Amino acid sequence: MKLQGTMTVNEKGHLVIGGCDTVELAREFGTPLYVMDEEFIRQNCKAYYESFTGAYPNSEVIYASKAFLAIAMCNIIEEEGLGLDVVSGGELYTALKAKFPTGRIYFHGNNKSPEEIRMALEANIGRFVVDNTYEMDLLNSIAGEMNKKANILIRITPGIEAHTHEYIQTGQIDSKFGLVLSNGQAMEGIKKALGLENLILKGLHCHIGSQIFELQSYQHAAEVMMEYIQKVTAETGVEITELNLGGGFGIYYSAGDRPASIKTYATIVMETVQRKAREFNINVPKVIVEPGRSIVGAAGTTLYTIGSVKDIPGVRKYVAVDGGMADNPRPALYQARYEALVANKADQPKNDEVSIAGKCCESGDMLIWDLAVPEVEPGDILAVSCTGAYNYSMASNYNRLTKPAVVLVNRGNAELIVRRETYEDLVQNDIVPERFKKNKKLTIAK
Predict the structure, then answer these.
(1) What CATH number should be reported for the domain holding residue 170?
(2) I need a surface site. Which of 60, 116, 379, 380 has the fewest CB within 10 A?
(3) What residue numbers bound the domain in which 87 lies?
(4) Is residue 274 part of a domain?
């Protein structure tokens, strides 16, 4: 496993993150346990801020909260000077509970409900990223009822297929997101928005996918969108002052992943936008990017306790842990690959090969295939790296498993930022019809 962020191995041979011994963390907080490296998160935030806003003042970095969101995470993002993108009432509510500056909140989503729209308008968020014409009409109507004006970006589908898993491609024409650029749909939507009295068109948005390593994809997206901005201005006479190019910057998960530097990414995007502005003799729009995974992904590690071992001679050795697809569905969803090490034997030679199985009642609940490890035994602690993005966010209660706790580690201190669910949490929303209660009493009486 590649050691990233503040990861080290101490004299006991234990994995250490943020100055905290992971074996001790497992003992204190239990497993499965999400461990977030605060210093690493802040380093990534600073790299984005300095590479974009610091070097190019007419730009903004907003954190894609769907990667990982908790009130404490909102506090970090605010302190580091980034904005926040939300895609639901729940994410917006979390931001509001954190007292995040609402003017720096962008609201995404392809099917925002009337209740979510009202909530966002009441909070005076900075921008709505409008996905379709139905939403335009809905937002315009509700804003009118509330005597509000909504600042919007219109999401465009630019027709760019990034080289990534098909489920996380979003820029191609055949996508549930955005208005298609190539067939005139996007231009019709822009003209419609300009005619709605309670909407203020500020700019355009596009997002071509996630876990992207080829920076040429971002360059191409910037070129296409700048050419389209010039076309919009020529056809409508309206200047587009903001261009949101989405996120999707890839990170290291396992051998073979080679992400570029954030600075290189920023330089390619910003220089492309500036070059096209000169070419078309238009003003350089404010450029917005939306990193999520690349801020928290590699900063998260999940700790598990090893349980049963099933050795099939000549075939495979299965090692089961006390979590699985309920706390990390990505291998099952995307065939995502991860690296791991035995945290309490981090310095020992890896002379065995095993496959890591989850405890869910699914044959597909496999976290890692063919992992090199020392000889393992029940009670060992397994650390799976790069689980900071889309793991806690996508965690479920499948098999009525409780969602893990999240701890924030920094300079030897470990702070609980999300408590572990309890069995009582699992049933707190269950409602038993009165007839069942009566039947139960009759059964007991017999």
Answers:
(1) 3.20.20.10
(2) 379
(3) 38-296
(4) yes
Q: Please enumerate, by residue number, every residue annotated as part of a binding site for substrate.
A: 293, 330, 334, 362, 390
Give the distance, in angstroms, between the CA of residue 345 and the centroid of all CA atoms in the same chain: 31
Q: Which pLDDT band holds residue 49 (cuts at 50, 70, 90)?
A: very high
Catalytic residue status for 361: yes
Residue ranges for the known binding site for pyridoxal 5'-phosphate are 248, 290-293, 390
Is 443 a domain residue?
no
pLDDT tens sequence across 366-382: 999 999 999 999 999 99
Q: Which of 20, 74, 206, 361 is catalytic?
A: 361
Tens of pLDDT, residue by residue over 384-416, are 999 999 999 999 999 999 999 999 999 999 999
**Tens of pLDDT along 233-274?**
999 999 999 999 999 999 999 998 999 999 999 999 999 999
Binding site feature residues? 248, 290-293, 330, 334, 362, 390
CA angle centred on 279, ends 276 and 285, rounded to 5°: 45
Q: Which residue is associated with the tokens 């005139």?
A: 184
Whether residues 245 and 308 fall in one domain: no
The rounded distance, in Å, linking the Cα atoms of 208 and 441 is 59
Residue 287 · residue 27 · CB < 8 Å: no
